[in-house]
């Protein structure tokens, strides 16, 4: 009986401990990761909804030429090398819609290449 | 059918009268066209530039201008180093000239958005973002002195 109880208790304790770690990480604000593919001439996805105050990492990938992603209002600008990747890390601190543009000239549809962030409570 | 024939005949007549040679416009042509553009055809006079003229915005505009505007307007916006600037009809204007600078910001935005017919000025809406076009308008208001920028490599070798 004792032998059975020890693994049961220890696994329960471990389970609770992991749960606590997870909860404390959540309260500290675990980064939300979103993969974004930038191609001539679109970002996919082109709309992303984020929670105000939650840290975000946009994992940007370009399978073709060099691109960029710039949100003037948020003071964010990241360049993505051709056939490469880059990360944009930030924590949205105001609600609203923010339109980002490709910031590396990539051809005839460059000006229409946008990504909209919807930041909500 | 009759209308189509008349249109073709008029087109041939105009071509015969005008010819296809790119010649500089006369003083009268220039005066009339400039007046018409400023007062009638290039609209959007009242739209304000949402971007403030800061050193960062001017730098943004210069960068956006360098994508392809420089091919015809030169890196200084004043045709420096552009070998065909005077050979086009109409010739490419200096963007520092009074003719260009007397447009409002909204009109300059419209010119970059839609281009100008009849001239070699192309429409850039969709090729450049609104943000880039407004930053170019800021740059146009703060052009560097003529000939102070390095010339484009394509014209120097």
Give me the secondary-structure topology.
The complex is a heterodimer of chains A (121) and B (157).
Chain A: H1 2-28, E1 32-39, E2 42-44, E3 47-51, E4 56-61, E5 67-71, E6 76-80, E7 85-90, E8 96-101, E9 114-120
Parallel strand pairs in A: 1-4, 3-9
Antiparallel strand pairs in A: 1-2, 4-7, 5-6, 8-9
Chain B: H1 2-18, H2 27-41, H3 55-65, H4 70-73, H5 98-101, H6 105-114, H7 130-140
Helix pairs in contact in B: 3-7, 6-7
Question: How would you portray this structure in words?
Answer:
The complex is a heterodimer of chains A (121) and B (157). Chain A is α/β, with parallel strands linked by helices and 121 residues long. Helix content of chain A is 22%, strand content 42%. Chain A has one helix and nine strands, in the order αβββββββββ. In chain A, strand 1 (32-39) and strand 2 (42-44) form a beta hairpin. Chain B is mainly α and 157 residues long. Chain B has two domains: 1-41, no CATH class; 44-147, Cytochrome Bc1 Complex, Chain D, domain 2, CATH 1.10.760.10. Chain B contains seven helices and no strands. Chain B is globular, with a radius of gyration of 18 Å. Chain A binds chain B through residues 72, 101-102, 105, 107-114, and chain B through 64, 67-68, 124-133.
How do you describe this structure in short?
The complex is a heterodimer of chains A (121) and B (157). Chain A has 121 residues and is an alpha/beta fold. Chain A has one helix and nine strands, in the order H-E-E-E-E-E-E-E-E-E.
Secondary-structure element order of chain A, N to C: HEEEEEEEEE
Protein structure class of chain A? alpha/beta
How many strands appear in the DSSP assignment of chain B? Answer: 0
Termini separation of chain B comes to 53 Å
Quaternary status of these chains?
A: heterodimer
Average pLDDT figure of chain B: 92
CATH level-four homologous superfamily name of the largest domain in chain B: Cytochrome c-like domain
Extended strand count of chain A: 9
Question: DSSP helix count of chain B?
Answer: 7
């Amino acid at each position: 009986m004792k032998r059975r109880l020890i693994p049961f208790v220890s696994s329960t304790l471990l389970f609770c401990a992991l749960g606590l770690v997870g909860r404390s990480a959540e309260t500290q604000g675990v980064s939300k990761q979103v993969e974004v593919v930038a191609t001539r001439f679109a970002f996919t996805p082109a709309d992303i909804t984020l929670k105000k105050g939650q840290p975000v990492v946009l994992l940007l990938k370009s399978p073709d030429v060099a691109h960029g992603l710039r949100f003037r209002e948020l003071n964010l600008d990241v360049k993505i090398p051709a056939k490469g990747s880059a990360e944009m890390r930030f924590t949205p601190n105001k609600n609203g819609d923010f339109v980002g543009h490709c910031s590396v000239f990539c051809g005839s549809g460059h000006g229409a290449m946008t990504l909209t962030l919807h930041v909500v409570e | 059918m009759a209308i189509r024939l008349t249109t073709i005949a008029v087109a041939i007549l105009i071509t015969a009268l005008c010819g296809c040679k790119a010649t500089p416009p006369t003083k009268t042509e220039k005066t009339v066209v400039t007046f018409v553009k400023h007062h009638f055809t290039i609209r959007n006079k009242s739209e304000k530039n949402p971007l403030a003229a800061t050193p960062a915005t001017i730098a943004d505009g210069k960068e956006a201008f360098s994508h392809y505007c420089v091919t015809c307007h030169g890196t200084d916006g004043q045709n420096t180093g552009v070998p065909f600037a005077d050979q086009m009809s109409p010739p490419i204007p200096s963007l520092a000239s009074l003719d260009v600078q007397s447009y409002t910001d909204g009109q300059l935005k419209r010119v970059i958005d839609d281009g100008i017919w009849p001239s070699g000025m192309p429409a850039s809406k969709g090729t450049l973002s609104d943000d880039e076009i407004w930053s170019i308008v800021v740059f146009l208001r703060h052009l560097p002195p003529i000939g102070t920028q390095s010339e484009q490599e394509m014209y120097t070798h």
